Structures are given as C-alpha cells and as structure tokens.
Amino acid sequence: MAPGFVIGLTGGMGTGKTTVARILAGLGCTIIDADQIGHQLLTPGTEVYRKVRAEFGATVVGPDGWIDRSALGKIVFAHPEARRRLNQLMHPAIIAQIEAAIGELKANGADGVVEIPLLFEAGLENKAALSLDEIWVVAAAPAVQLARVMARNGLAEKEAERRIDAQMPLREKIDRADLVIYNDGTEAELKEKVVTHWVARKQAHISRFGA
Known about the structure:
The chain has helices at residues 17-26, 34-41, 47-56, 69-78, 80-107, 127-130, 142-153, 157-165, 170-176, 187-208; strands spanning 6-11, 30-33, 112-115, 134-139, 179-182. The protein is an alpha/beta fold. The chain has a domain at 6-36 and 94-206: P-loop containing nucleotide triphosphate hydrolases (Rossmann fold). A five-stranded parallel β-sheet has the order 2-3-1-4-5, sandwiched between helices. Helix 1 crosses helix 10 (187-208) and helix 4 packs across helix 5. The protein is globular. The chain starts with 5 loop residues before the first strand and ends with a helix. The model has no long low-confidence stretch (mean pLDDT 93).
C-alpha cells in the first residue's frame, strides 16, 4: 500500500486557504477542517459550549441558544487576553479530534489536508507530533488580503485590518512553511499551481518511502 500524503494547510486570513482545500478535495484528498470541528464543539449542550458560555456570558449567545460567533469574534479580536482564553478552551478539544482523524487517514494510506488557520499560533508546527508530512502556507499581497476579508466578512477597513493584525504576521508563516502558494490571481491560476505542486510533492513523498 502506497503511503498516504497528509499536509497541514494554513495561511493568513483571506488568502484562500479554503479554496486551496477545495481544489485538493477534487484531487481525492480528505479534508479535515479545524474551523468546522470548532463549530461542532460549540453545539449547545457540549462541554466546550458550556465552558465558552460560562467564560464570556450571555452576550455571546444568540436567541436560538447557539453561540453567536459574530459577537464572540468582536470580543476576542478586540482583546488579546479574551482571545487567549478562548483558545485555551477550544484548542485541546480541536487538536484531539484532528489527531484522531489523521490517525485514521494514516492507517488507511489515504491522502489528506488538515486546514488549520492558527496552525503556527497553536504551536502545531511540529509535523511529527501531528503526523503531518508537510506544512503548506497560502499567501496573498496585503492589499488583496484586506479586500477579500472586507468583502467576505462585510467589515469596514479598520476592523478588517484589526482582525488580520490579530494573527501571526504572514511573513512569519511563510518562513516556516515547507511550501508557499501565492494566491493573487484568478482561481484558475491558483488551481494550476495547486495541482502541479500536489502531484510533484506527493510523488516525492511516495519515492521517499520506496513505494
């Protein structure tokens, strides 16, 4: 059985991580989405939900009883200490589910992409610890990144800048990556880059294991 190729995918806000993941899904990769896991963990009644509600109060709970992610986001992006507390509540449970999912992929020799926006911020760059074969970073020019965040999230320029600045500088992520994909053009151009890199690097991975 050929070894599966499992990468960690990260980058700055608005750089196109999810688009890259979607392209890789089209190539047969299983996608493990840390944000999606986080959403599931905030389902009313779960332990993480109870902890987040207790920590941040009723102001982050919507009329339907679910966590209002917009209200929570305004708090944590404005206050670094609040963001740190939220990460302490969320990250251990998210990481545990990611580890289990990667283990299943590896056991079956399957290819996978673990999309983790805060991969470096959460201290997950030790590839061996998560059984990742490579870490890919998606990057874009600052002006392009800002415009995308404003359009996608419906934010004013200052708020979009604050949210981008709340994350690790993109340059630091680029410096730590095994591969950087620059996404300043069209989706067709991005797809061509992603497919080319995936085919070449997966083959190199297989060759290293003598398969």
